[in-house]
Amino acid sequence: MSDEMARLHERGRDTFAELVDGGKERLDHLFRASPGLAELAVGTVYGHLSHRPALDERTREAVAIAAIVAAGCWESPLSVHVRTGLAAGLTPAEISEILVETAAFAGFPRAVSAVSKLPDLFAEAGSPVPPEPAPREVLLNALNHEELQGLSGYEVQVLTTGSNTAVALFRAADGTLVASAQADTTGGKITRLTVVR
């Protein structure tokens, strides 16, 4: 293995270990029959791709899960990326929604085969099945049912930023940010809402 590939492989092992408990040992077990594949796969995916700055970890894992389901790989690769997706801040509801979206483009049989793996993976992560609504859903629902301190006239963008957190950005017609709101959600409801103008 070249020095650069060895560096990327070790960086990838460290990155994976940050996302998954016992990550290095899991990788060793998974790739025990082909260390060369481990060097290439772990070095490329977790040593190089996961450190590219254009996508955040949540988005990168969402893309990986969609691609894995579209490719029909619902065994080990799906399990690994559901775990790393949860560790990167994707919620179980978002992962379920990724399968819904993927079904439309990759086919229902692949999505249905993949969804059969989710209950065990969610249970392992301590999530109820079916999962609680995603933080984005909770905040959007609240915004649709109540006026938030006079901000109803502005364009709003709502993003999930963590497993129990969503942020709303309120913009004027010219794109100027006029306010933001952060909602902490647990159990499918807002437990704290902070608005900054």
What does this structure look like?
A 4-stranded antiparallel sheet has the order 1-2-3-4, covered by helices on one side. It has 197 residues and is α+β, with helices and mostly antiparallel strands. Helix 1 (3-19) packs across helix 3 (35-48), helix 4 packs across helix 6 (92-106) and helix 6 (92-106) runs antiparallel to helix 7 (108-115). It has 9 helices and 4 strands; from the N terminus they run αααααααααββββ. Strand 1 (155-162) and strand 2 (165-171) form a beta hairpin.
In short:
With 197 residues, this protein is α+β, with helices and mostly antiparallel strands. It has helices at 3-19, 23-30, 35-48, 57-70, 76-87, 92-106, 108-115, 118-124, 135-145, and strands at 155-162, 165-171, 177-186, 189-196. The protein is 54% helix and 17% strand.
